[in-house]
Design brief:
- With about 150 residues, the chain is α+β, with helices and mostly antiparallel strands.
- The chain has one domain (about 5-145): Gcn5-related N-acetyltransferase (GNAT) (Aminopeptidase, 3-Layer(aba) Sandwich).
- The chain is about 30% helix and about 30% strand.
- The chain has four helices and six strands; from the N terminus they run H-H-E-E-E-H-E-H-E-E.
- The protein has helices spanning about 10-20, 30-40, 90-105, 120-125, and strands at about 45-50, 55-65, 75-80, 110-115, 130-135, 140-145.
- The strands form two sheets. Strands 1-2-3 form a three-stranded antiparallel beta sheet, with helices on both faces.
- The longest helix is centred in the middle third of the chain and has 15 residues, at about 90-105.
- The model has no long low-confidence stretch (mean pLDDT about 90).
Length: about 150
């Protein structure tokens, strides 16, 4: 993401619409500023954009922690989002595989993610159920992947 700061506003808009409930006191503008300030190229946290020409079509992240209640688990695949009109075209799969590969390159053997409704998508990619939790009143499934 650090290479395409102008694309970040669109991606954060999609993320906020999909995941904003996870941060009831926050805003899309705060998310955008936080992402720009924290992402690097070679260490966690990392962010990736899928681009079609000069337009962003999706994103994914590798971050240290994603659930406050599970700080014992690290790192996490997070922020996987694909522009709604391109869902089902393989963009999400490529974004997940990019994060998996980078996690392995950084020496991690296992990565985690959580989802409210996309567990079938992740299971198709080889992720397995690790457990469940609650996030702001929503039940979420925690998944893991050996990389």
């Amino acid at each position: 993401m650090v290479d395409h700061p102008s694309a970040l506003e669109s991606v954060v808009g999609w993320q906020w619409a999909e995941f904003g409930f996870e941060d009831p006191g926050g805003s899309a503008a705060e998310w955008c500023a936080d992402l720009l300030a924290t992402f690097s190229r070679d260490e966690v946290p990392l962010g990736y954009l899928a681009m079609e020409g000069d337009q962003p079509v999706g994103s994914s992240e590798l971050i240290e922690h994603d659930l406050r209640s599970r700080r014992d688990l690290t790192p996490w695949l997070a922020g996987v989002i694909v522009r709604p009109d391109l869902r089902g075209c393989g963009v999400g799969r490529r974004l997940v595989r990019t994060v998996e590969s980078k996690a392995a390159d950084l020496g991690f053997s296992t990565i985690y993610c959580f989802t409210e409704s996309a567990a079938p998508f992740y299971r198709k990619l080889g992720w397995t159920r690790f457990g469940s939790d609650r996030l702001y009143g929503h039940r979420v499934t925690i998944l893991r992947r050996e990389v």
